[in-house]
Task: structure prediction
Amino acid sequence: PGLLQVEAVGQAGLCLVRATRAASENAPPPPFHLTDLLSARFATPVTPDEDVEIVACVVPDGLFTIVVGQCLQRGLVCSAAAVRGLEGA
Result:
C-alpha cells in the first residue's frame, strides 16, 4: 500500500504538470519521467473501505520538477512523499 500511495502522489503531480503545460502551449507536452524518490513518510495505515484524497503541488527545480504531496483519509494525513522527475524526449 505504501508504494501505491507514493505512485499516486507522483501521478497526481504528472497530471498537474501536463495540464499546466497543455493550457499554456498548443503543442502536446513532452514526456515526463519520474527519476527518483526524494522522501516518503507514512503516518497512518490506509484502509481499503474508504476513499483516499491526494493533494499534490509541483515545484520547478532547474532541469528537474519536484512533486510534493499527501494522501489523506477522513481528513487525516496517511502519508507524504516527494518525487523528482525530468521532462524530455
Summary: The two ends are 31 Å apart (CA to CA). DSSP finds one helix and four strands in the chain. The chain has a mean pLDDT of 88.
